[in-house]
Design brief:
- The chain is globular and about 55 Å long.
- It is mostly beta strands.
- 7% of the residues lie in helices and 54% in strands.
- A hairpin with a 2-residue loop joins strand 5 and strand 6.
- The chain has one domain.
- The longest helix has 11 residues.
């Protein structure tokens, strides 16, 4: 069941993988305007995802994830407050209860992260992270306040540059990518912070596809691959694939990730409060 907890964290957290020592310097994605009027989401957006696990005779929905966006003020700025909350299905709670709660605060103009929190409970394990983004002249760092069952309470400073994000702000930033400037097959180096580390991954644009999504139907999508570093759970060269709607909203509708013991996948179950009509739906 510990593997189940890892599966949920990886899917709901966008596939966190330890950085390779030889990873290239981080560069930003080509983005559209990040003004409040132009970003592909807004206050009131609510998405629900089903997480599925298949391995041998196991073929089951194991968890759900909930994504919400609202607004508040922080440091004198209007900000988006984005949240992902994940939980195991009731059937699995008696065996290994998992609750994952991630939140990030982004400026409405520019999508600049100001704060991030994580509250994880996995069986008898817990972890709590809080990041404050410090940008005062030449002093740029993430002030991290951390607590976990294995390491206890600690505070440290993590490196920060203009292309460093927590994984949740990185997810929302990626939705604002300028597809017209993406090159099919090109590796874009990304960086995000979680726990005590700043990690690197490769995001690869694979082009456009029409995919059938359960309970929704055929959807025109933009396909991306996240290239993962080999470790005890992943084979060398393993990719996590995700499909975003090819419309103004750019919402993730499908995820798929092979691991050494089966395949983890997820799909969009419901959506409310989208900023734009879901014009990516294929009408037959």
């Amino acid at each position: 069941m510990k593997r189940l907890a890892l599966i949920l964290l990886l899917l709901l957290a966008g596939g966190r993988i330890p950085a390779s020592e030889s990873a290239a310097p981080v560069t930003c994605l080509p983005l559209r305007s990040a003004s409040k009027a132009d970003v592909p989401f807004g206050t009131g957006e609510s998405l629900t995802y089903v997480v599925h696990y298949k391995w041998g005779v196991i073929n089951s929905d194991v968890a759900k994830g909930y994504v919400t966006v609202d607004s508040t003020r922080m440091s004198g700025k209007d900000v988006f407050r984005c949240r992902i909350y994940g939980r195991t299905a009731k059937f699995y709670d008696p065996f290994f209860k998992v609750r994952e709660d991630f939140r990030t605060w982004l400026t409405m103009d520019g999508l600049v992260p100001l704060r991030f929190t994580r509250d994880t409970k996995e069986g008898g394990y817990y972890a709590r992270d809080e990041y404050r983004y410090i940008r005062h002249g030449g002093d740029m760092h993430i002030a991290a306040s951390l607590d976990s069952k294995t390491k206890g309470q600690r505070s440290l400073n993590l490196p920060l540059n203009d292309c460093t994000f927590d994984f949740l702000s990185l997810l929302f930033l990626a939705r604002n990518v300028d597809v017209g400037r993406l090159q099919v097959g090109h590796k874009y180096n990304l960086s995000f912070a979680l726990d005590d580390d700043v990690d690197n991954i490769y995001l690869v644009y694979k082009g456009r596809e029409v995919r059938n999504v359960k309970n929704i139907g055929k959807v025109r999508t933009l396909k991306f691959a996240v290239q993962l570093v080999e470790n005890e759970q992943f084979n060398d060269g393993t990719d996590m694939h995700m499909w975003l709607t090819d419309d103004g909203n750019r919402i993730p509708v499908l995820f798929e990730m092979p691991i050494k013991f089966g395949v983890v996948s997820g799909y969009l179950e419901s959506r409310e409060g989208l900023k734009y009509p879901m014009q990516s739906l294929v009408n037959e």
